Amino acid sequence: MTAAIDSRVLVINSGSSSLKFQLVSPEDGTVDAVGIVERVGLDMGSAKISAGEKDATFSGPVPDHKEAMRIVEQLFGEVGLSLQDDRITAVGHRVVQGGALFSTPVLIDDQVRDDIHDLGKLAPLHNYAAVDGIDGARALLPQVPHVAVFDTAFFTQLPEYSATYALNREFAERYEVRRYGAHGTSHHYVSALVAERLAAEGRDVSDLKQVVMHLGNGASASAVRGGRPLDTSMGLTPLEGLVMGTRTGDIDPSIYVHLHRQAGLSPEEVDTLLNKRSGMMGLCGMSDFRDIEDAIAAGDKVADLAMDVYVHRLRKYLGSYTFVLGGLDALAFTAGIGENAAIVRKRLLKGMEVFGIELDLEKNAERSKEVRVISTPTSKVTVMVVPTDEELSIARQATEVAAQHS
User: Fold this and answer.
1) Which of 71, 151, 301, 311 is least enclosed, having the fewest CB within 10 Å?
2) Domain chopping of the chain, boundaries
3) CA dist list (Å): 397 to 27, 184, 190
4) Which among 151, 300, 329, 389 is annotated as catalytic?
5) CATH code of domain 202-390
6) Which one is predicted more confidently, 253 or 6?
7) CA-CA distance, 175 to 36, in Å (whole number)?
8) How much is the pLDDT for 132?
9) Beta carbons of 65 and 136 less than 8 angstroms apart
10) Would you say 103 and 155 are in contact if contact means Cβ atoms under 8 Å apart?
11) Pairwise CA distance, residues 10 & 91, whole Å
């Protein structure tokens, strides 16, 4: 990475109804400002920014992501910052779906912008919003390189046998049905950090076999060997895989048809049910693991069962990925639940000593924002908690691409 010591990157994450932003130093990760515009496209939106000890808020209509970017510019001014700051050397845009077309971050020009829009057919809730955010940001900062960093890029390296579904080949090819994965920026960042940490301890990481569990409201797992992904739990869409906050994860596809026939639900209603009204929310009425843990402590058997369902799915993926990798050297937990929910890690790894995984219960219970090992010194598998930093990863990748085109 070639970055000026005092340079900054504006990182934009345009979600289906939100726009998150961060002004970050790609050199040392210093964050000058962070904020979010919420309820984009709804009747009444809101926004907030924090910059050191200064804060500002906004309330009013936010019809689209282009307008959201104009609100970001306004908030910057209210906390004494400017989007025209000469230190801003690049804008990094998180884009969910890069398809088979984009395997690396890329400088955004009109053709790339149109390609991202076309890939919206694979991620309609996210890519179209990303394009609107790109359009709004390019209009405000036309003099700065804009770079797209794709959630799917890391997983374009998947072996064909892992990326290919056993679906009729004609339909799969015609409609671009394959495993694309998601959270790739996080899985790449965390797996590289684990390898770096173990290499510093004198370990040979050239063939490091690791499983990364990105556990947030959306959750995914990956099997990474020697820095390359061999498998990941999310597929064509982020619905496949682990149990999540509001998503079912793996489910018999015929349930779609069953609910249509027996409950009279339309395809759109079934899609909403599986993506927004299921998962932990559907199982116990809660998706925040702090609430779930409190409920379990209070004797709530429904919440306890929901936790068991969640952990059971994690165990299935951990076991299968260990076999895919041909062994296991390291297991990393990241994202909000992975980093903070000690109960999940404890339940998942209970009784795993026979497989060489020994959890240090005291270390597991500690709260920290630092990279840390939570396995015992005698554990054959190193278990780590690794706070992810997708914004910093995007900033650094954007800086590298911008430097190549300067």
Assistant:
1) 301
2) 8-150, 202-390
3) 11, 13, 15
4) 151
5) 3.30.420.40
6) 253
7) 34
8) 92
9) yes
10) no
11) 5
